[in-house]
């Protein structure tokens, strides 16, 4: 009886002669060899130092300590003696761009920078120039630590030439390289400024090509993280004129980077803050704060807080009049403690500026914050799990919203057994705030039906109530045809409209 294996073989080969079987075996062997070759090529193409344990550049602590350095030294020889295309293939094969500063510095120490720069000239083919620029940008990457300063000084003149090229890919990688080199301390930023690339960067901000705008914006943003002089170098080239469009860009990332850049400019001096105002950037910045995506809103919050921290009283008033309070109040509900603290700082800075103008301006800020739901949000923050948030919210409530210790408190009627009694000190307190505030109170009392009720109280059976009501009517509401009459707001389809004759109160906000 045949075995099971023989039966299977007999079944599989049934109907096939020996030549057919031989042909199928040959085809199978060819397919296996091709698959094995493809797999080998795929692995070589995917080799990276961070992932492949057999990479000659990976393990500096291996038993063969010189393997990595010798491999990179070979790259230097390839750059100097072999074809440039072969060198670039080797660079890409070793995954230089992903290996951090350690392997980048191995390549730099091997002496490849000068031969690489020598390959870049006006006659270089565009396709090859793209590869060269890409490789150059990878040698500029990583900042912990950054590339050696002498290497940066060698590379920057070449970048200053490449940034004037008209090829999109060359421009993009050049701008990325500059953005990497400018991402550092002030001394590194100064190297970039001294290279003379700022004017071209500013020009490219408005090029409309996203692949170029993105690294260009990052480079400009990095430069303005420097000192005021370095920031001014960007402003002097007219960079702010590009930002109304950038802050309203359809890409959220561009909005975010733009708001971040403005936040670094508003962290400067009052002249630079005024330049932001003069460039018309407050309205689009507030648009980002109001309806941008969350990452963009966070950068706008920083821009506003820096503005209120370093701006003059007049500049802060312009910001308030532009409508900053409502979006700030709206943002108080975010979960990120750091951002909430920054918003509370901005509100505190606005109050500090208002105090310098007078108590009535502080009260106006209080009114707006209450109107936009800010008081409830700040009160809620007193229960925040973050101690710093709790303390900041508590200080604002106690200083501006507690109703204790200020003159306005005396305007509240004293509660007695007979009812409410307005004392003489209450009237005096109102008058100390100014006649326009007395008149405004008259308008509100009339608007809410208070005059009729007070007049009715003149017939009250209680003598004290009668006397208090009579005094109020005689002192504040008895005149016919006097200037109080003109204080009544005009009712329109949109609401109430206060005319200029209404005690000459500026309804648009602070004025100087």
- Average per-residue pLDDT, rounded, comes to 78
User: Which architecture name of the domain at 269-402 does CATH use?
Assistant: Alpha Horseshoe
CATH homology group of the domain at 269-402: Leucine-rich Repeat Variant
Structural class: mainly alpha
Q: What is the fold-level CATH name, i.e. the topology of the domain at 269-402?
A: Leucine-rich Repeat Variant
Helix content: 55-70%
Please provide the count of β strands. Answer: 4
Shape: elongated
**What are the segments in which pLDDT stays under 50 over at least 5 consecutive residues?**
37-85, 405-427, 480-508
Could you tell me how far the N terminus lies from the C terminus, measured between alpha carbons in angstroms? 114 Å
Strand arrangement across the biggest beta sheet: 1-2
Q: Using the coordinates above, name the CATH class of the domain at 269-402.
A: Mainly Alpha
In percent, how much strand structure appears in the residues?
under 5%
What's the helix count?
A: 28
Largest sheet: 2 strands, antiparallel
Please state the CA-atom Rg, rounded to the nearest Å. 37 Å
Biased composition (Basic and acidic residues): 14-37
Region (Disordered): 1-37
GO biological process, one term: protein import into nucleus
Domain IBB: 1-54
């Amino acid at each position: 009886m045949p075995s099971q294996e023989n039966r299977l073989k007999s079944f599989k080969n049934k109907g096939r002669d020996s030549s057919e079987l031989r042909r199928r075996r040959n085809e199978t062997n060819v397919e296996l060899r091709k698959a094995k070759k493809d797999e080998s090529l795929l692995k070589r193409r995917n080799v990276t130092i961070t992932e492949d344990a057999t990479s000659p550049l990976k393990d500096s602590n291996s038993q063969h300590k010189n393997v990595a350095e010798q491999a990179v030294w070979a790259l230097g020889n390839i750059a100097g003696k072999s074809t440039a295309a072969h060198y670039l293939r080797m660079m890409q094969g070793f995954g230089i761009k992903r290996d951090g500063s350690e392997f980048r510095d191995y390549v730099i120490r091997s002496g490849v920078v000068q031969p690489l720069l020598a390959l870049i000239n006006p006659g270089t083919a565009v396709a090859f120039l793209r590869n060269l620029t890409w490789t150059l940008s990878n040698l500029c990457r990583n900042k912990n630590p950054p590339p050696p300063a002498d290497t940066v000084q060698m590379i920057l003149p070449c970048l200053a030439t490449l940034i004037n090229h008209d090829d999109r890919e060359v421009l993009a990688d050049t701008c990325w390289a500059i953005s990497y080199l400018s991402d550092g301390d002030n001394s590194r930023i100064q190297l970039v400024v001294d290279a003379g690339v700022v004017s071209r960067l500013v020009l490219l901000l408005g090029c409309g090509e996203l692949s170029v705008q993105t690294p260009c914006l990052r480079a400009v943003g990095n430069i303005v993280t420097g000192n005021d002089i370095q920031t001014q170098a960007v402003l002097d080239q007219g960079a702010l004129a590009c930002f109304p469009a950038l802050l309203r860009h359809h890409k959220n990332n561009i909005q975010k980077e733009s708001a971040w850049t403005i936040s670094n400019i508003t962290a400067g001096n009052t002249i630079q803050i005024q330049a932001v105002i003069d460039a018309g950037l407050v309205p689009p910045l507030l648009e980002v704060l109001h309806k941008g995506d969350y990452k963009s809103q966070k950068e706008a919050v920083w821009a506003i807080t820096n503005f209120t921290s370093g701006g003059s009283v007049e500049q802060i008033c312009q910001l308030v009049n532009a409508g900053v309070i409502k979006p700030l109040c709206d943002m108080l509900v975010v979960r990120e403690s750091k951002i909430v603290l920054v918003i509370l700082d901005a509100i505190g800075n606005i109050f500090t500026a208002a105090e310098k103008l007078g108590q009535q301006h502080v009260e106006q800020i209080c009114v707006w914050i209450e109107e936009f739901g800010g008081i409830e949000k700040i009160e809620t923050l007193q229960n925040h799990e973050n101690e710093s948030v709790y303390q900041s919210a508590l200080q604002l409530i106690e200083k501006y919203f507690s109703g204790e210790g200020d003159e306005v408190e005396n305007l509240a009627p004293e509660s007695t057994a007979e009812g409410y009694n307005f004392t003489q000190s209450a009237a005096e307190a109102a008058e100390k705030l100014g006649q326009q505030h007395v008149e405004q109170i008259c308008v509100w009392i009339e608007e809410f039906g208070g005059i009729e009720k007070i007049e009715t109280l003149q017939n009250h059976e209680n003598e004290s109530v009668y006397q208090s009501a009579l005094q109020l009517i005689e002192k504040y509401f008895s005149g016919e045809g006097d200037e109080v009459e003109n204080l009544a707001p005009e009712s329109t389809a949109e609401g109430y409209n206060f005319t200029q004759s209404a005690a000459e109160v500026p309804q648009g906000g602070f004025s100087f």
